[in-house]
Amino acid sequence: MKKVITYGTYDLLHVGHINLLRRARELGDYLIVVLSTDEFNAIKNKKAYHSYDDRKIILEAIKYVDEVLPEYTWEQKIQDVVDNDVDVFVMGNDWEGKFDFLKDYCEVIYLPRTEGISTTKIKVDLHK
Ligand code: C2G
Fold first, then answer.
1. What is the pTM assigned to this prediction?
2. Is 80 helix (H, G, I), strand (E, B) or coil?
3. Residue with CA at minimum distance from ligand 1 atom 7
4. Per-residue pLDDT tens for 48-106?
5. Cα–Cα distance measured from residue 11 to residue 3, given in angstroms and rounded to the nearest whole number
6. Under 8 Å between Cβ of 58 and 10
7. Residue nearest atom 21 of ligand 1, based on CA coordinates
8. SS3 110
9. What is the mean pLDDT of the chain?
10. How much distance in Å is there from the Cα of 55 to the middle of ligand 1?
11. 52 lines ligand 1 (CB under 6 A)
12. Quick one: which atom of ligand 1 is closest to the CA of 93?
């Protein structure tokens, strides 16, 4: 079984997220999403609208997602890849090159982002 892993906050779910999850899942047979906890979001200087528990429930309802794990730190990725026997690491290409250290442990793929949508854009547009 070819296992794929990806990371993110996945707040205010939108088509950019779904496009990423679908393409990531299509690269293997099983997709793990490591979801940023509220504490880790604070480290990323992000404040999610939905709590971790709610973002987890939402992600688990997506047909492309097989498993959701918590992301607590920047440093857990190698351990996650090893512990979960991951074959492919996938992120949107806004992260291009940032996780190449994982190439010693698995395939690393950066996928084109979906243009014109982001959680930040949603928040800004709603305030107009
Ligand atoms: N994404 C995308 N297109 C968009 C918006 C987001 O492809 N228009 C992708 C991002 O590249 C990322 C995923 O969707 O791969 C989740 O995006 P975020 O929730 O913004 O995740 P981020 O804050 O980048 O967290 O350790 C890594 C971090 O947890 C990544």
1. 0.97
2. helix
3. 113
4. 999 999 999 999 999 999 999 999 999 999 999 999 999 999 999 999 999 999 999 99
5. 24
6. yes
7. 8
8. strand
9. 98
10. 14
11. no
12. 11
